[in-house]
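Propose amino acids for all 339 sites.
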């Protein structure tokens, strides 16, 4: 039996924080003492956990004393502020923000792909961007079929990626439109109900938004392919939960057959093949919501390019795209005797 761990969750009252608690219960994660940390505004709330209720504390530098593993999901600025304190207190930090992902000495980890990139004694591990995780869960099995030269990706990103407030806004705006009212954007910059728009992050000098830039560079780091050509368009769509992605994979030589691609997906951990042409059933965000696996299908040769195959992917942004990936990292560390 695994030893019990003292666990902290920073960002406990957010959408991803709630998923951590459900995952601890569902997966039997060996939580001994649990500390739920958030802002002053959320302090004093009580959150159910394993038949009890745990009080949320305002995060302080001293909050991590005695903590074995700390899951951070409170934004990059909070991570930069408090990760050094957690590490100094002896905790291993698994950070879900963008704060440390591209630091050269911080491993950026999807356990099914590059768990071995975590060096012995490492106490700070970055959880990748949700869209990058979902993309790479589908693409990594295909890298074993030949050298991938280029990825062309379009994302269809749900409200869950922008947090619980964005999910509520989509619900409220949808209700307003159906009742004949004029929806008012507050969390996101545009009307969300019955609409879609470029991902709500700043555009850089190259014309790419922050989300696209993250996917490009995180994909290269996780695959250890700094030369990999990646083009990404990220779009916010009026779906509550689970991101979808259209992906074209270009190879150095001739593309593998559709059946080889399907077989690679069938045999890959953490993904599920959903590729029923006869009944026109392929990955959908509704089917991906609330499940651990990333759904992969719509597999076909790119008739415009002899070296390319195309596919469609859907994965739960709050689970494999965020909390589940972090918990899996901790589980693997625990199994290896490193927690």
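Proposal:
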């Amino acid at each position: 039996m695994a030893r019990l761990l003292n666990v902290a969750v920073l960002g406990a009252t957010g959408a991803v924080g709630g998923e951590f608690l459900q995952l601890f219960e569902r997966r039997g994660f060996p939580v001994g003492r649990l500390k739920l940390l958030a802002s002053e505004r959320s302090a004093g709330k009580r959150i159910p956990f394993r038949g009890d209720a745990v009080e949320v504390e305002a995060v302080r530098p001293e909050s991590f004393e005695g903590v074995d593993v700390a899951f951070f999901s409170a934004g990059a600025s909070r991570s930069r502020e408090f990760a050094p304190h957690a590490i100094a207190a002896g905790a291993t930090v698994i950070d879900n923000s963008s704060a440390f992902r591209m630091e050269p000495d911080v491993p950026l980890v999807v356990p099914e792909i590059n768990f071995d990139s975590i060096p012995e004694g490492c106490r700070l591990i970055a959880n990748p961007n949700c869209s990058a995780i979902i993309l790479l869960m589908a693409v990594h099995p295909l890298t074993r079929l030949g050298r991938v030269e280029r990825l062309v990706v379009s994302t269809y990103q749900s409200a869950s990626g922008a947090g619980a407030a964005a999910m509520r806004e989509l619900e409220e705006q949808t209700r307003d439109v159906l009742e004949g009212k004029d929806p008012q954007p507050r969390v996101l910059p545009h009307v969300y109900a019955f609409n879609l728009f470029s991902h709500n992050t700043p555009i850089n000098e190259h014309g790419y938004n922050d989300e696209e830039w993250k996917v490009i560079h995180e994909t290269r780091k996780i695959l250890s392919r700094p030369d990999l050509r990646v083009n990404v368009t990220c779009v916010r769509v009026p779906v509550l939960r689970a991101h979808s992605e259209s992906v074209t994979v270009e190879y150095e030589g001739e593309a593998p057959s559709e059946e080889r691609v399907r077989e690679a997906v069938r045999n890959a951990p953490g993904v599920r093949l959903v590729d029923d042409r006869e009944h026109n059933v392929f990955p959908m965000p509704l089917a991906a919501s609330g499940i651990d696996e990333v759904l992969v299908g719509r597999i076909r040769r790119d008739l415009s390019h002899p070296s390319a195959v195309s596919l469609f992917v859907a994965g739960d942004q709050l689970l494999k795209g965020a909390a589940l990936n972090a918990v899996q990292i901790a589980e693997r560390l625990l199994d290896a005797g490193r927690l």
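The longest strand covers residues 148-157. The chain has two domains: 5-128+322-335, 132-317.
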